[in-house]
Structure formats: structure tokens, C-alpha cells
């Protein structure tokens, strides 16, 4: 038997059309191709993606569940936009969940887990060399999700999964205000170092303190909302 015959087949995971449609629309929302406030009309999406309206409707329901799309009575679906309140809720929730995940992962650290965490960090370092903030946001999220996966806490992972797409949107919004990608990488280097050290208290503190860009996002959105209020008062 040659090497080619010994190779294990790559598993093929069938994905229904509505799941694939949700994947496409989710990526467009997170990448900014579909801006906040964009209307998502079934007939237009059906024609663009060459799928039935029923399939599109099912995909939109999934995105509504994930918190990326909101549905208004008689007006259809719209891409969500983060408000200052949304950002504050995600900021505080993320700090709590990721602080716990980092503490648990540090407590359960092994050489094998350290390798997985370091691999995720190196992926972030590599994409940060290019000025591609979409790729950086994806690698950023993947690193944090790896921390949850290594925590050995199934229910914590399930809770994170409920809000993970909103967290991805939050990370992308934060990174848009983070001009220094090298500083972002350094924050994550220190976080991974703390977790791999096995010091649970430091790991938890680093997970909470490294999310400083969240405060910038909250303030930015508050300022924008106040400007809109003043503009509307003139009319």
C-alpha cells in the first residue's frame, strides 16, 4: 500500500442550502459588505444567491437567532447596528465569560493545550503583518474561541456559542477603532503567556484588562448617538 492509499479520506460534512446561505450573509455582515441598517429583502437575496425564498427565509431566521439581523413587523429584516448600550452589554458580558474561560484554561493547562493556544496566537501574529483588519478580526475571534474550547467547561462553551456571532461583530467594531495592530497583537501575546503560565488569577485579570478597546467603542458610539440627537433636534 502506497502513501496515497494510506491517507485517510477528508470527511465531508453536508450543509443544507439554508445553512450555506446563512454563512454567506453572515460573512457579508461581519466583513461590512452588508452595512448596519441594510434591508434584507427575500426576493432580492433569492435572485442574487439563486435560491428559493423559503431557503432565504430560513437563513434569515438563523441570523435573527444569532443577533446579527433584526425583524420588524411589516418591514422585513435589517442588519443590526451596535448601539452604545449593545457595546456595553457585550463588553461586560465578554469580560465575564472570557475571564472565567481564561482562568479555567490556565488551571487545566497541559503541554498539548499550550501548543494549540500558541498556534492560534501565531495565526493572529501572521495575519497582523498585513493591513487586513477583516482577517485580523477573524484570527482574534478564533484565538478567544480556542481559549473557551480548552476550558473543559461544556456549559460555558454553550453559553458563549449563543452570543459568539455578536461577539465577532463587536470585535470587528472594536478593531476598526484600533489603529495599532501591533499593540493588539502584544495584548494577545501577554494574554496567552498568562494562561500558559498556569497562574489562574493573572490569566483571568489579563483576559479582562486586555479588552480596553471595548471602552473606546462604547464612548465612540455614545458620541455618535449624541450627535445624531442634536441633529434631529434642529429639524
Structure description:
The protein folds into 2 domains: 17-79, Arc Repressor Mutant, subunit A (Orthogonal Bundle), CATH 1.10.10.10; 84-223, Four Helix Bundle (Hemerythrin (Met), subunit A). Helix content is 73%, strand content 4%. It is built from 11 helices and 3 strands. The protein has helices at residues 3-6, 17-31, 42-49, 53-66, 84-107, 111-127, 133-149, 154-177, 181-197, 200-209, 213-233; strands at 39-40, 69-72, 76-79. It has a 3-stranded antiparallel beta sheet. Helix 5 runs antiparallel to helix 10 and helix 9 packs antiparallel against helix 10. The radius of gyration is 20 Å and the shape is globular.
* Secondary-structure-derived class: mainly alpha
Domain unit count = 2
Rg, Å, rounded:
20 Å
Could you name the CATH topology of the largest domain? Four Helix Bundle (Hemerythrin (Met), subunit A)
The average pLDDT score comes to 89
Strand content: under 5%
Helical content stands at over 70%
List low-confidence stretches.
Answer: 1-8
Compile the SSE list and pairings:
Layout: H1 3-6, H2 17-31, E1 39-40, H3 42-49, H4 53-66, E2 69-72, E3 76-79, H5 84-107, H6 111-127, H7 133-149, H8 154-177, H9 181-197, H10 200-209, H11 213-233
Write a brief caption for the model.
This protein has 235 residues and is mainly α.
Describe this protein with a few key phrases.
235 residues, mainly alpha, Arc Repressor Mutant, subunit A, Four Helix Bundle (Hemerythrin (Met), subunit A), 2 domains, 3-stranded antiparallel β-sheet, 4% strand, globular
Amino acid at each position: 500500500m502506497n502513501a496515497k492509499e494510506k491517507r485517510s479520506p477528508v470527511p465531508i460534512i453536508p450543509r443544507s442550502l439554508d445553512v450555506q446561505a446563512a454563512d454567506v450573509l453572515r460573512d457579508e455582515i461581519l466583513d461590512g459588505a452588508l452595512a448596519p441598517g441594510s434591508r434584507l429583502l427575500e426576493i432580492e437575496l433569492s435572485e442574487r444567491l439563486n435560491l428559493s425564498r423559503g431557503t432565504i427565509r430560513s437563513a434569515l431566521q438563523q441570523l435573527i437567532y444569532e443577533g446579527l439581523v433584526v425583524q420588524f413587523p411589516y418591514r422585513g429584516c435589517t442588519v443590526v447596528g451596535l448601539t452604545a448600550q449593545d457595546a456595553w452589554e457585550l463588553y461586560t458580558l465578554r469580560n465575564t465569560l472570557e475571564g472565567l474561560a481564561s482562568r479555567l484554561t490556565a488551571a487545566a493547562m497541559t503541554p498539548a493545550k499550550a501548543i494549540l493556544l500558541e498556534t492560534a496566537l501565531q495565526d493572529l501574529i501572521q495575519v497582523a503583518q498585513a493591513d487586513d483588519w477583516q482577517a485580523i478580526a477573524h484570527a482574534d475571534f478564533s484565538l478567544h474561541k480556542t481559549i473557551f474550547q480548552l476550558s473543559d467547561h461544556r456549559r460555558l462553551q454553550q453559553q458563549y456559542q449563543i452570543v459568539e456571532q455578536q461577539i465577532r461583530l463587536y470585535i470587528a467594531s472594536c478593531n476598526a477603532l484600533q489603529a495599532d495592530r501591533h499593540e493588539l497583537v502584544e495584548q494577545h501575546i501577554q494574554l496567552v503567556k498568562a494562561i500558559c503560565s498556569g497562574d489562574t488569577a493573572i490569566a483571568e485579570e489579563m483576559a479582562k484588562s486586555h479588552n480596553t478597546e471595548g471602552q473606546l467603542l462604547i464612548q465612540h458610539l455614545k458620541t455618535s448617538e449624541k450627535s445624531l440627537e442634536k441633529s434631529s433636534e434642529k429639524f
